[in-house]
Amino acid sequence: MSAVWVNNLTVSWSIIAKPNPEHNTNYLVHHDVHRLSIHHNLFFDAKRRNPWVGTRPEDTVGTPISSIDVRNNVMWEVSGSSSNHGTVFFGDASGNIIGNYYYTGDHCSDSDCEKRAVIVCQNPGFSEDLSFCRAQPVAGEVHVSGNVSADGWTNYINTKGNRSSAWPVAAVTTTDACAAGRDVKSQEGARGPKFGLDSVDQGFVDLITIPSDCKGAPVESSPQPS
């Protein structure tokens, strides 16, 4: 998926999964995008762009990307070695990363992979993020809170924001990351009243396991724009 030169868009309760392995990317957000809500989706089995939010120096630049709200999604089998990643903000892009559930799974092949579930390019930045951020301009103001790492880095990934309060965005019924993960598993995808999920989508959903002792940090909904 891509969001390019667009305002006032919501992507929710969808399955974004299994991209072409030669490119291995799920969702690109760049070029003058504003007020984008990404909530209660399953991002599945992609090493990069879960989502990738920002504009590179060589791209045509309009107004800096703003009010991108990444909230209550399940990021399953994301990140990877070197500059691969889960959710990343750079290039003056601003927004929120709130209450998402991250699991890197089998993609990790280096010791820092799991820490790259969340990247907010900063100067100075986090050491494991530099392989990606070194070639990109720093992010704008990004609020990061309430995310859960199934790989044991929950507290750490929530320190990666550079803004203490959430940006005002469109209202979303927000739960802790673990509850959101269970909601995504039980309600995800195009479930028609007669047929439910097809076998491919059901196969993705069946692989999600949220443990009963999952420690989801409470999160608050962002204030709506005035």
3D architecture notes:
With 226 residues, the protein is of the alpha/beta class. Helices cover 12% and strands 26% of the residues. The strands form three sheets. It has a five-stranded parallel β-sheet with strand order 1-4-7-10-13, with no helix packed on it. A five-stranded parallel β-sheet has the order 2-5-8-11-14, with no helix packed on it.
Short description:
The chain has helices at residues 130-133, 154-157, 177-187, 199-206; strands at 2-4, 7-12, 15-17, 28-30, 34-39, 42-46, 52-53, 66-71, 74-78, 87-89, 95-98, 101-103, 118-120, 142-145, 148-149. By secondary structure, the protein is α/β, with parallel strands linked by helices. The model has no long low-confidence stretch (mean pLDDT 90).
How is this fold's topology laid out?
Layout: E1 2-4, E2 7-12, E3 15-17, E4 28-30, E5 34-39, E6 42-46, E7 52-53, E8 66-71, E9 74-78, E10 87-89, E11 95-98, E12 101-103, E13 118-120, H1 130-133, E14 142-145, E15 148-149, H2 154-157, H3 177-187, H4 199-206
Parallel strand pairs: 1-4, 2-5, 3-6, 4-7, 5-8, 6-9, 7-10, 8-11, 9-12, 10-13, 11-14, 12-15
Features:
five-stranded parallel β-sheet; 4 helices; 15 strands; 26% strand; single chain; alpha/beta
Q: Main β-sheet: number of strands, strand sense, barrel status?
A: 5 strands, parallel
Number of strands: 15
Backbone shape: globular
Query: Which regions contain 5 or more consecutive residues with pLDDT less than 50?
Result: none
Indicate the proportion of strand residues: 25-35%
Order of helices and strands: EEEEEEEEEEEEEHEEHHH
